[in-house]
Amino acid sequence: MGEAKVNGVPFLKMNGLGNQIIVADMRGRADRVTPAAAIAINATAGTKFDQIMAIHDPKTAGTAHYIEIINSDGSLAQACGNGMRCVVQFLASESGQKTFMFETVAGLLFGEEHEDGMITVDMGTPKLAWYDIPLAEEFADTRQIELQIGPIDAPVLHSPSVASMGNPHATFWVHDDVWNYALDRFGPMLENHPIFPERANISIAQVLTPDRIILRTWERGAGLTQACGTAACAAVVNGARTRRTARKATVTLPGGDLVVEWRADDHVVLTGPAEREWVGMLDPATGGWTRAEEAA
Ligand SMILES: N[C@H](CCC[C@H](N)C(=O)O)C(=O)O
């Protein structure tokens, strides 16, 4: 793949702090990027990605586009903060417009490109009830749930805070370096733990100061990533409601820094960069693609 001529849609290879994103321009079409196409695209070194952001025609009046989010294993995600910034940057560069109202499966979502090129997306309100995350059993308080990994009497990771940012997140708090933990081994087990009927994104967080968190994430359906925007949002929400952090903090991910604010109106807003790498054409049914000769 990669060489054959494809009759498809334009796509952009982008990243948000190293979170590998493909933006597929599906406007004017009724079909979808298929799970098989996602798996095929991810299997090629040049287009290995974490999420595909497929831009579709709007479904609802007052919105500019409908965005479908596809993980690299072909599963659908309800939210992707880094990917939304990439979508905003692409549409802003194309239209000159700076603000956009989108619709996703999780609801309406506002995005804005600033003068300095940074992009803010309003990720909506967090959901904190056990059945909204969702969890398989009732927990009256989701600030700390019973879940641990490692020896019973000396767990390696335990008692995460859980929250939904549209998608399910667990934040495990640690006092030492987040790189001391084998997230590549624990991530898959925790992602698929029976307590999470829809699986979950799994993060390890160290709070340095109330306005500074170090975070690593094992993403549901994508694995270890350089950055996960919704995990950064969940970490600040969980940090603030357990009094570990303020409602606004800089979150340092392997790929760089994001600023997250859980506003007084309950919305969580995420600010950070997006980077365009190259463009091509993509067959949304098969995942066949070609790269165009555009200098990024
Ligand atoms: N990378 C994304 C999150 C992907 C979510 C996905 N892994 C899931 O919930 O299934 C972000 O920047 O927010």
From TrEMBL:
Annotated metabolic or biological route of this protein: Amino-acid biosynthesis; L-lysine biosynthesis via DAP pathway; DL-2,6-diaminopimelate from LL-2,6-diaminopimelate: step 1/1
Q: Which Pfam families match?
A: DAP_epimerase
Active-site residues (renumbered):
80 (proton donor), 80, 228 (proton acceptor)
Q: What is its main location?
A: cytoplasm
Q: Where is this site: Could be important to modulate the pK values of the two catalytic cysteine residues?
A: 169, 219
Could you state a single Gene Ontology molecular function term?
diaminopimelate epimerase activity
Q: Provide the protein's localization.
A: Cytoplasm
From what superkingdom does this record's organism come?
Answer: Bacteria
Q: Where does substrate bind?
A: 19, 51, 71, 81-82, 167, 201, 219-220, 229-230
Q: What is its EC number?
A: 5.1.1.7
Which family, according to UniProt?
A: Belongs to the diaminopimelate epimerase family.
Function comment: Catalyzes the stereoinversion of LL-2,6-diaminopimelate (L,L-DAP) to meso-diaminopimelate (meso-DAP), a precursor of L-lysine and an essential component of the bacterial peptidoglycan.
Q: What is this protein called?
A: Diaminopimelate epimerase
Q: Which organism is it from?
A: Devosia neptuniae
